[in-house]
Design a protein that fits this description.
It is a single chain. This protein is an alpha+beta fold and about 500 residues long. It is about 20% helix and about 20% strand. The protein is built from 13 helices and 17 strands. A six-stranded mixed β-sheet has the order 7-8-6-5-17-16. α9 links the parallel β11 (about 345-350) and β12 (about 385-390). α9 (about 360-380) runs parallel beside α10 (about 415-425).
């Protein structure tokens, strides 16, 4: 691997969750009132009426402001809301939010002016991961790590009333619900809350995303589903495979670092697909390989420049190297590199996509797949074979977010899926990830067009297929969904020798 590759690894975010809900009766001021009104000062000309001494939440009668109202103390000042219950009853919750945040009723003909709150009366919230971006607020940046507890210091103001507040704190699997009366008198409260961050926000792959999930399916989470690190004294080899979708673009990415990738994964061999390099670029790349990865083998498309391309970068010197299938009709696009090690052959392939309108579907299933399968079976006569790369096929419905909507999409047609089964699985090559995780939804590709990675609406197109004779030696077949820089993510295989 080389210095110029600079890959970023977004840190995962974990934490705990707490929530506060308020029961709001008809024509009572909603619980978000203080937040929405914080940027402005509102005055009332008279005190709000006393709340009823009851366990039930009461509705609020707030006086209309007078133009010449005199200044009142903090205990006398309140939130001004037009005394028109019918107006608020007709509003949606969103309209009430909008109305209150602007200090003007969303419906009705009257317009009211308000003066801003003093800085001491404004609510200050310190919460790094608030998902609510729709309302303006005073925010203080939080320098804590993603897993830290956010301290929320808030100044709560309320008119004379009694509310029942339900608060829930969740910590791990414990849940505590508390109902209590809150004094309606205007009070100042400094609260420190333990705020939980939903892991799914920054780890969307941990959410089961599928249009037609089956019973027993779970989302792939490498943090919990990968086995412990293999013992150092156990002979093994670590293989990594990645469709980089343009190596030069990846090299320019400031968030990518090959050194970090190598240090984190400690791989022995890295297989790249869709490098989009030309032959003239290869020598320059070789000069900047990471120390220790001195063996690299590249094949580039010559029929269409800046297209396709595969490479194998290794710190283990192979016994032999081959390029292509040995068939001229297949070998002009730089789609296959084979290296031979002591115990197996490793094939790195970028299988042709059937293309828009499935224009290459026939070529893919009747020529390429059969030729590759026959080539693999020929090699297998002397040693076991491992095939990796972007194989451009989501084999089963569990391997794609929306199976019904992609029946005629390249990569999920019945023809491609049947060809995958017939030419590879039925001939004794094992899908190592599916063998290890039969009911796990794990994707390796997310389209840029609709932000699929953010919502985990993806496909599993990248594989390690292994001869049955060594399939039981696989210690771990895994996906690294947190690695960005491409529309695909890397996959890995640890093989005991």
């Amino acid at each position: 691997m080389f210095q110029a590759l600079k890959l970023g690894f977004p840190n995962s975010i974990s934490g705990r969750f707490s929530a506060v809900s308020h029961r709001v009766p008809k024509f009572s001021v909603p619980s978000y009132l203080n937040t929405a009104m914080a940027p402005k000062r509102y005055r009332s000309s008279s005190q709000a009426s006393a709340a009823q001494n009851s366990d039930n939440a009461t509705s609020i009668d707030v006086p209309i402001p007078q133009k010449n109202a005199s200044k009142t103390s903090d205990e006398q000042s309140g939130v001004v809301v037009e005394d028109e219950p019918s107006v608020f009853e007709k509003m949606t919750l969103q309209e009430m939010k909008s109305s209150l945040s602007n200090g003007v009723a969303a419906k009705g003909n009257s317009k009211r002016k308000a003066k801003g709150l003093s800085e001491s009366d404004q609510m200050q919230i310190s919460n790094k991961s608030s998902p609510d971006s729709g309302r303006k607020r005073t925010t203080r940046k939080d320098k804590q790590s993603p897993e830290d507890i956010a301290d929320i210091e808030s100044l709560h103001r309320a008119t004379e009333q009694e509310l029942i507040v339900e608060s829930t704190e969740m910590e791990g699997e414990k849940s505590i619900q508390v109902k209590k009366k809150v004094s309606s008198r205007i009070t100042t409260t400094n609260a420190k809350a333990r705020v939980s961050v939903d892991n799914s926000v920054d780890e969307p792959w941990t959410v089961l995303a599928h249009k037609k999930p089956q019973k027993g399916w779970t989302a792939y989470n490498p943090k919990t589903m990968r086995p412990p690190a293999i013992a150092a004294d156990t002979p093994h080899i670590k293989l990594l495979s990645w469709n980089v979708n343009g190596l030069r673009a990846l090299l320019k990415s400031e968030s990518f670092s090959a050194l970090q990738l190598a240090q984190r994964e400690d791989f022995d061999v890295l297989c790249l697909q869709e490098t989009k390099l030309q032959e003239k670029d290869v020598d320059a790349i070789r000069q900047i390989l990471l120390e220790g990865y001195d063996n690299s083998y590249w094949t580039c498309s010559v029929s269409k420049l800046g297209y396709s391309g595969t490479a194998i970068i290794s710190r283990i010197k192979p016994l032999s190297v081959r390029y292509g299938l040995g068939i001229s009709d297949h070998d002009s696009e730089g789609r296959l590199v084979t290296v031979e090690f002591d115990n197996f052959y490793l094939l790195n392939s970028y299988v042709p996509n059937s293309g828009d309108g499935l224009r290459r579907l026939s070529y893919r299933i009747t020529e390429w797949d059969t030729s590759l399968s026959n080539y693999m079976k020929g090699l297998e006569q002397s040693k076991p074979v491992i095939l990796t790369g972007d194989l451009n096929c989501a084999h089963q419905e569990i391997d794609i977010f929306n199976p019904a909507g992609n029946k005629r999409s390249a990569g999920f047609t019945d023809e491609e899926r049947n060809s995958f089964q017939t030419n590879f699985l039925d001939k004794g090559f094992v899908d190592t990830f599916r063998k290890q995780h039969p009911d796990v939804v794990g994707y390796t590709y997310w389209g840029y067009r609709h932000g699929g990675r953010r919502t985990n609406k993806g496909w599993r197109l990248d594989y390690f297929l292994a001869s049955e004779s060594i399939a039981d030696q696989v210690y771990d077949s895994y996906i690294l969904p947190d690695m960005g820089g491409s529309d695909h993510c890397p996959i890995g295989l640890i093989l005991k020798l």
